[in-house]
Amino acid sequence: MSSPSPKSPEQSDKSKKYDRQLRLWGDHGQRLLENSKVCLINATALGTEILKSLVLPGIGSFTIVDGEKISEEDIGSNFFLENDSIGLSRAQVATQSLLELNPDVRGDYIDESPEHVMAHTQDFFNKFTVVIATALPEKRFSSDAKLVAVSVNDKSGVATLTLQRPPVNSLNLELLTDISSGLTEIEKAKCRGVILTSSAESVFSAGLDIFEVYKPNPERLNHFWKVLQDTWLKLYGFPYATVAVINGHAPAGGCLLALSCEYRIMSKNYTIGLNETQLGLVAPKWFIASMRNVIGQRQSELALTAGRLFKTDEALSLGLVDEVVDNKEEGISKAEQFLSRFRNIAPEVRGMTKQLVREDTIKDLMKTREQDLNTFVQYALNPKVQEYLEKYMQALKTKVLIPLSRHLWDAQVPLVVCRSIGFLGYIRLQVKEHTVIETHPDSENPDLRLDKPWPALKEHLDSINVATLDQKTRSHIPAIVILYYYLNKYKEFHDGNVPRTRAEKDVLRKMIRDSPIPDEHGVKVLEENFEEAIHYVNTCLNPQTIPSNVQTILDDDSCINLTQNSSPFWVMCAALRELVQSEGALPVSGSLPDMAADTNSYITLQQLYYKQAQLQAEAVFRRASQIARNLGLPQDIITESEVKLFCKHANELHLIRGCCIADEYERTSLDLTSYLEDPDSLMFYYITLRGLERFISEFNTYPGQFDDQVEPDVLKLKSIISKLLSEWNCSHALRDERVHEVCRYGGAELHSVSAILGGCAAHEVIKLITHQYKPLNNAFFYDAITSNSATFCL
Ligand SMILES: CCCCCCC/C=C/C(=O)SCCNC(=O)CCNC(=O)[C@H](O)C(C)(C)COP(=O)(O)OP(=O)(O)OC[C@H]1O[C@@H](n2cnc3c(N)ncnc32)[C@H](O)[C@@H]1OP(=O)(O)O
To answer: Which of 61, 504, 548, 568 could make an S-S bridge to 499, C-beta 3.0–4.6 Å?
Structure first.
């Protein structure tokens, strides 16, 4: 790779400290690094290894977001955590240890889960240059979807209101609002009855959304409770017959919804109850009344004070539910049968009777609404209650990858997701758009323009007749002059064409090789500069074309249709496009390779190239500044030094348009056939890891985490993976030993694997920050057993 030249001996302390890396990405790269703000989610062994490799080269600052306390497992794998820190905040201890590595770096931490941070400070992550997330399970939910579905069976006149807020229909403000408007819709349609059920496989509703009450915004909290009261009043006093088909767990608020209906049909093997006391919460009076009206004072008191959750069959014996079924379909059919009981009863009469039965309970809340609201708000804001809720939230675990990925995608903040488990490692980069000016290609041909020299260069080169030079001058002229001279001779005999094929180039090489004048002994000695000219025949005579990747960038919509949101890169590209259109070529890079020549002739030539590069860069700068002005962008958005750098590297520009992780996880088909047919392909790790993510999401543990659960977990993971493969329409199966291997790890991190992967991930982050070198596009897998690695574009 090409590198900036070494620094002079008079270096500042900082440049001494960073000397080696400055050779790789220069002062300007270092400046970007020192201005960067990096966020790490979860200070796992891998997470801290990544930060270590970013703190040492001097990022500006880092913030760790991690609500976990240090465990024994952490101590075993995480170099930055000490034995005596068990039980302390992982974010805090890791921050302190990392800061010791480099006094020039600032660091802080947030001792909260990323989900909590997301829920309370939506834009928190937007301020970072890069966000890195380790050990972050997916969360399968989409924020845009409708939260309830209402369907009416025209024949039976029965409406079904289905709760569909994944994953567990927790009742947040939006879901409650949708339930309420769903009921209004049904009321207007004058249906014979309503079935309330859920689209989730195993949950009816998890009750109130804890995020509405944990560290709440007081205004929203008020509104939330009012809407809950309204929704309950509407459902409880609904004029038409209501049945709850409880096709999954129904704790707390979920139970309240079911209790508000007139009849309850529950699938086997789930739980239901008002379990508030178990959570350290007191259920409001109308929750209690709803239960008392169904199972009576005595049973309610026993159930409520203990916060009991009843299994389906217990709930049946208690009268909390009316019927038990095997599945939702049977439940719906039984609900229709219940509703058909009222076929011969006038709906108004039925409705009025229900109103009278329920009137007192409804009036009670109506009378005390304001007081109930105040009590709730005060109670929710009580620090002790918040403490309970915090503990409870931690127990529920957080899964935040999907919403975080979407959020950062929209905010255009790069996200680097990494996982290290046993001998397996994975890095996935999410960038919406990433542009690179200095890609540092491995080999670069000098940009000499000998096929089409600009006038000043042509004039200079034409002024030297190589054939007539004396021996001494001849041996000191730069190789480029020689090459140009013989190229012109060649063209004279070949209809003005430059040599293209190997045979044609051999002809030119021979012309140069045969050129020496015999010495006094009649021997032809080929001077070093002539040897160099022969060498350049291969690399310097390719006609000046615009590389296809650069042309694609210049033809990109972002280059042609600039807006006020266009980045400086695109403004410079637009200006470059105009230069290319008028001159037919990219700007000259302006640098000459070293050559055996006398200083004067070399410098004369070097000046010509340098001056031409300056002139072209100035033209691009003027045009770019004008474009920026026309767009109303700030004047300092385009700097002359940046435009010079841009023009110098115009033939290596690189653009990545990535893919959002959330989209990747929601994809329904994936063509893996070609990979899975190759026994050496590491693609199976992708499938295994996706299975692992889903396992963690469903069971809140790692497969194989508990010794006595390894075999059952293997079966569970296998079934999850085959479900995934069938979701992707992929007929291949994953070999059993692969699944066993992952379960054997039990979620453990190995420090050695995390250290390697941490270095790799940190290097990708440096590329993203400095906008130098091409970053990974987009996933990297590392197998520490075979020492193989592979990258895939997912
Ligand atoms: C402050 C004053 C308040 C006074 C009001 C008093 C009245 C209170 C009424 C209430 O309703 S309080 C809420 C009580 N709810 C519960 O206790 C249920 C908790 N959830 C569960 O037990 C289980 O989730 C479940 C319903 C049995 C389903 O289990 P499953 O294994 O299928 O899913 P999980 O992995 O546990 O959860 C998936 C996902 O959903 C999140 N989640 C679960 N419940 C809630 C909730 N109530 N609010 C918000 N989020 C919830 C859970 O954290 C998981 O999230 P991720 O980890 O995927 O991010």
So the answer is: 504
